[in-house]
Amino acid sequence: MLHYKADGKTETAEKFRYNIITSFRTFLNWLKKGKFISKDTEFIELKRPQRKEPRAITQEQQFAILDNLPERHRYIYEIAMIFGLRPEEVVALQWDCVDIENEILTIRRSFSTPKEGVLETTKTNNIRPIIGWHPRASEIFLKMKSANKVIVRLKNPKGIHKRYKKLCTSPTFVFVNEGGGFYKTLDNNYWYDACKKAGVDINVYNACKHSLGCKLADGGAHDGLIRDTFGHKNTETSRIYFQRGGRMRGAAIANAWKTREEVEEEKERRKRGVVSVRRTTKIPFKI
Fold first, then answer.
1. Which of 15, 107, 121, 241 sits at a 20 to 30 Å CA gap from 280?
2. From the candidate CATH numbers 1.10.443.10, 1.10.10.10, 1.20.1250.20, 1.10.3720.10, the one assigned to the domain spanning 59-230
3. Tens of pLDDT along 18-42?
4. Per residue in 100-144, pLDDT tens?
5. Domain boundaries in the chain?
């Protein structure tokens, strides 16, 4: 039953099945604790699936995708890429969370389902402020401030409704789609058409969140910083960006082992009173 979605055809992910079973086991334990069922009741055990290696793309590929998106839809994707936001977080972004003057972006809401709508919580059930951002983020938010103001319809009325061809925002939601409502998903035809034209095969989640996580890890950020950036509950989740097929470990080992020529060169530098902090950085000092 758990192996297929509601349509009966699409197979569910292994992690999805594991999460459902884990939630049901938690409920079962609650029933045992309250003595609603016998403590001898057994339940199936599932082995935790191994985390999949995160997919990421380069900034050059991100720009190629953005260039092929219509302007009125481009900026929501660009903000998601800059801050590494989850799709459900950026579509629920409201103006009360954007402080352009002090460059603070607060992530406090997320979109759940069309029935539940926008929730006053995030996937990790915490509010995380992002303090300080790239100047490009300010440009985008200021552009959205001056965009065509529309009143968001949380539920589109039946029949034909007005479609806006210009860039739109609203007094509430930062990003508004062409139908005058907030975006409910970013995995849409606009995205995949742009990816096809750019020659990149990737979904929004990987192109935004995972791509930033990999950039931070490659740039030397520690797992605690990545944990706080994405609001992970523990650093174990953040470590997936450091364990991509062993490539980063291999690069670190290769960087730690020096050639004979590099050792001799460093020896000569020490004699001259110059020490190398990094291979490309030299700092003179007095002995």
1. 241
2. 1.10.443.10
3. 677 777 778 778 888 887 777 776 7
4. 999 999 999 998 877 778 888 887 788 889 888 889 999 999 999
5. 1-50, 59-230, 257-287
